[in-house]
């Protein structure tokens, strides 16, 4: 099989990386450049890259939509809690301020410890709440994420 000789000028950084890759893989620099060129010139290479990018964009879109939904739920939850708290909390007389502060500090410490345990278990209270309200949505998201992971595994 005849070969065509080609002299190329590439940046020093590319040349260094090409040298390192050739040594690491135990192949010639020419074979690496030929494989890269074949991949670049392949008629379906662009389609493959475009499909991979589209899958990643779809996954990012779903993640963004979940974040947006979770943030909206969180904002509403905090707003409702603050409204409720401000509505039902009675002012504390000056004589009881120190006791109330101590009780608040103890409750906050307990809250932080409970939150830490919850996070260490890997559970999401927000996810649990959404699952209770919309179990089909959570199931569809999990199925979509699994199919994307499978497609990404096949593409590589």
UniProtKB/TrEMBL annotation:
Q: Which UniProt keywords apply?
A: Coiled coil
Q: Which residues form a coiled coil?
A: 50-77
**What InterPro entries does UniProt report for this protein, alphabetically?**
Arc_rbn_hlx_hlx, Ribbon_hlx_hlx
- BP-aspect Gene Ontology terms: regulation of DNA-templated transcription
Q: What is this protein called?
A: CopG family transcriptional regulator
Q: Which organism is it from?
A: Dyella monticola
């Amino acid at each position: 099989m005849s070969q065509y000789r080609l002299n190329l000028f590439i940046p020093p950084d590319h040349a260094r990386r090409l040298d390192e890759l050739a040594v690491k893989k135990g192949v010639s620099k020419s074979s690496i450049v030929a494989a890269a060129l074949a991949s670049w010139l392949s008629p379906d290479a662009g389609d493959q890259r475009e499909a991979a990018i589209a899958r990643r964009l779809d996954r990012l879109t779903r993640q963004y939509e979940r974040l947006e939904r979770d943030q909206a739920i969180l904002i509403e939850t905090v707003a409702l809690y603050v409204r409720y708290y401000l509505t039902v909390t009675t002012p504390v007389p000056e004589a009881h301020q120190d006791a109330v502060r101590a009780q608040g500090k103890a409750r906050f410490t307990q809250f932080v410890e409970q939150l830490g345990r919850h996070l260490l278990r890997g559970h999401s209270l927000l996810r649990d709440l959404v699952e209770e309200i919309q179990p089909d949505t959570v199931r569809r998201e999990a199925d979509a994420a699994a199919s994307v992971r499978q497609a990404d595994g096949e593409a590589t």
